[in-house]
Amino acid sequence: MKIVARDMPPRAAWALEQAGLHPLLARLYAARGIVNKDELDDGLARLLPPASMKGTQEAAVLLADAIAADKRLCIVADYDCDGATACAVGVRGLRLLGARHVDYLVPDRVVDGYGLTPPIAQRVKDSGADVLITVDNGIASVDGVATAKALGLQVLVTDHHLPGPALPDADVIVNPNQPGCTFESKSMAGVGVMFYVLLALRAELRARGVYTADTQPKLDPLLTLVALGTVADVVKLDANNRRLVAQGLKRLRAHAQPAGVASLFVAAGRQAKVATTFDFGFALGPRINAAGRLSDMTLGIECLLTDDPGRADELAKTLDTINRERREIEGGMREQAMLITEAMFVDEDTPPAAISVFDPDFHEGVVGIVASRIKDKLHRPTFVFAASKAPGKGHEYKGSGRSIPGFHLRDALDLVAKRHPGVLLRFGGHAMAAGCTINGEHLCTFEQALAQVAAEWLDAATLTRRIDTDGPLAPEYRRADMVDTLAREVWGQGFAAPTFSEEVEVVSQRLVGEKHLSLKLKHQGQPVDGIWFGHTDPLPARVTLAFRLDVNEWRGERKVQFLVEGAEV
Hints:
- By secondary structure, the chain is of the alpha/beta class.
- The strands form four sheets. The chain has a five-stranded parallel beta sheet with strand order 3-2-4-5-6, with helices on both faces. It has a five-stranded mixed beta sheet with strand order 7-8-9-11-10. Strands 13-14-15-17-16 form a five-stranded mixed barrel.
- α4 (about 80-95) packs parallel to α7, α11 crosses α13 and α12 (about 300-305) runs antiparallel to α13.
- It is built from 17 helices and 17 strands.
- The longest helix has about 35 residues, at about 310-345.
- Among the domains are: about 45-215, inorganic pyrophosphatase (n-terminal core) (Alpha-Beta Complex); about 345-455, Diaminopimelate Epimerase, Chain A, domain 1 (Roll), CATH 3.10.310.30; about 465-569, CATH 2.40.50.460.
């Protein structure tokens, strides 16, 4: 464990402070590369123009023509939160813009697998649709798109994943990561791409005289869903994504959100009026994702589509129940996965450069979460596999992987595929998260091949867990109102929430709930409580901690506490 303070350019911090920012915020933003207050302007006018994303104009024409001809549209969604929100944004937005026949279909994780497959294309055709629209998938669906086209469907692919060696032969592709696209925000989530298609469609409908600037439908109510999907998909919060998220949060706090989102906040025991990115990532996102992991993502999408508060409450409670079940399954899988992992290096001081874990009892809907937990604990690229439960596919193992900085997981899979042809049946993803399907008999080959790539690409420094922090915290900022101020800002992947670090005195420590370390600390001579979740090893009397700020509320009293992220001893 290495704790490293971020570089904080003092001139940039001074300039931001002079421009009116709170001194602590100025320091934090400067450390994240912000040099001008204008960069923090989250106004809609500052969003990158839709026309700058390749394919949006063509998509707008296709959809405008389809609406004019009263064609039937069907959205094929992915079964995660990004896919669910993108689907809801697509259905709501297309209906707002005049489409009378908009339906959706979401594949079953177990039976159908990921993306637009030929059987899914057939189901879309059988539903009576004329136009097939993918959201958060499709860029790798060469066969599925070919089948859809052969069946006479028009196909619009909207996606954000990295393309493979061949692009599908769709009528239109909108994806900021496709070849030839100069759109600056390559990190946009699938839901953001669909929102941009709707913006382009509205502009096309204005150009055709269907609407004027005064009569056009407002699309900004969809921004709550865009923000939720963007944060939940853990994409990099570049300037454009931060604006989308900030706009969504503003509407949430003003209670301008779909009924399902409001109900999810209630089910999670959180308050929309003080909503934060943390709520998206750790409260709402997991509840929607749980439907796709263990049940049917239709539940999640319907929750986001309904305008009936009673129906929304019912669906939100169902999603909460499924999420509780997911937690139980995950807990058991995580313990078993750690036992298997630790057995790999029982005679070694350090784990292998990459980890692959399989157990016949693992649930394929939860393998990604478990991979993330192992990756966090051991700081190694990790794949967790489960046997497919699809009929006739029991010999296939479905794996989900999570990576560490410096190891591009999809590129690693590509190299494994080239070195060992036939081992990977399917794969795709991003730098930090990817998925693949292998034949079970090739598990050992995959494990060795991935570990070999990791050994070649990663050095000792990269394999040492590092926590980047914002350095010491001035004691005058250790206040509940300051914690609230920080929470209102937009933090997330690539724009990390504030984490501080310095040496503290450990006055006392005890275990709570058998797996969490409760601490009494002295920070710069003043007492403060601390908690280290999931950590049981005792700390020395003086130690350098990396910590986030939190507020503990008890009987109406709000006290600041440190949430410990790591220790350098």
